Amino acid sequence: MEEVLKHYGVLGMKWGVHRYRNDPDKLRKHYNKASNKLFKYNKKYWKKQLKADKKFAKAERKLNGLFGNPKKGEIAFRKAEKAQYRANKIIYRGEKWYKAMDKNFGTKYIKSVDPDAIELGKYFTERLQSSNAALYGKSFYNRVNG
Fold first, then answer.
1. Which residue has the higher pLDDT, 36 or 112?
2. pLDDT band at 78 (very low <50, low <70, confident <90, very high)
3. Which of 34, 49, 53, 114 might form a disulfide with 101, Cβ 3.0–4.6 angstroms?
4. pLDDT for the residue numbered 100
């Protein structure tokens, strides 16, 4: 009698990896994790934006102040633009995460998700929409959904 190893799994499926089941508790856990990540992006963004605003104010003083110097003002504006770029980069990461979260949770039944997590997500998107860094005259919502 020969011993034969047989496999009845799905072709290409990794051992020990389970497919996602529509479990409300698991959905809530993943949604809360995603909301926390959006909160962290929001916090990082505001820190970077504050730095950029301070650098722009400093550059403005160097350029147009009492002892203004065009060369030093130009250098200060370049530094401020770099700081603004870093803040905008955080927005792009947040947009990417928002799109991924929308793809994963957009078709799920929203009432099974924690209301606090939903409010946190709404708060984040509303703050980005109202911020002065809505890139190039477009709001965050329009950039994501447009």
1. 36
2. very high
3. 34
4. 81
DSSP for 83-132 reads HHHHHHHHHHHHHHHHHHHHHHHTTS-GGGS-HHHHHHHHHHHHHHHHST
Cα separation, 139 vs 135, whole angstroms: 7
Residue type, 143: R
Amino acid, single-letter form, for residue 49: Q
| Separation of alpha carbons 21 and 15, rounded Å | 17
d(CA 43, CA 23) in angstroms, rounded, equals 30
- Which comes out higher in pLDDT, residue 145 or 74? 74
Q: Over 50: is that where the pLDDT of 143 sits?
A: no
Q: How far is CA 47 from the centre of its chain?
A: 14
Confidence (pTM): 0.54
Buried b / exposed e along 73-90 (16+ C-beta atoms within 10 A): beebbeebeebbebbbeb
Q: Is 19 helix (H, G, I), strand (E, B) or coil?
A: coil
45 class by beta-carbon count within 10 Å (0-12 exposed, 13-18 middle, 19+ buried): buried
Confidence class of residue 17 from pLDDT cuts 50, 70 and 90?
low
* Euclidean distance between CA atoms 92 and 79, whole angstroms: 20
